[in-house]
Amino acid sequence: MFMADIAGVRVLYTGDYSREEDCHLCAAEILQFSLYFNSEKMAKTIRRLAEKTPEVGETVSGFLVKKAFTYQIMALDDLHVFSQLSTENISQRITIAYSGAFGVLKHRLKQIFESVESLPDEESEGPAFHVHERLTVKYESEKHISLHWRSDPISDMVSDSVIISILLILILITSYC
Q: Which of 52, 56, 131, 141 could form a disulfide with 135 if both were Cys (CB 3.0 to 4.6 A apart)?
């Protein structure tokens, strides 16, 4: 199907390349109209963010919540008051089978990551260290280590890269044995 403009008359051609006769329909007359929209949006700060009036050009940080064509910016602590949403902190833990020396693991991770710092023994119940102050690696037994972190995008990325590094270290250890 296609629209053809022949001598000022618009015709819709519906040929289908069969032996049946083609059908030509005149286009319907449609009045042109225009719609105008105001693209300016306004968001109100509420509760804690509204306590202090921001200066011109000052950045306001919070959550933008749209509710029935109105926008509100609120602090994370106020989210549960004005919506049915709630926030939770998630602590994650993974245990990995690792039979190599814990000191070797720490040394290899120091080569990869900028910040690897030991934890005092009384704080961690055995050998442990922090990676970028976001992830804790603990020696659980001769055959296991565990990783602990609070879930957020950056900590999750650090934990993913540490897990991959540990698995690569395990591959290197087993390939040399």
A: 131
At residue 98, φ and ψ (nearest 5 deg) are -145, 115
pLDDT at 18 over 60: no
Answer for the pair 3, 12: CB distance below 8 angstroms, yes or no.
yes
- φ/ψ bin of 52: left (φ > 0), alpha (ψ from -120 to 50), beta (otherwise): beta
Band (1; pLDDT cuts 50, 70, 90): low
**Is beta strand 91-97 parallel, antiparallel or unpaired with respect to 144-150?**
antiparallel
Residue type, 146: S
**Mean of pLDDT values over 29-58:** 78
Query: HSE (CB half, 13 Å, CA atoms) of 177?
Result: 8
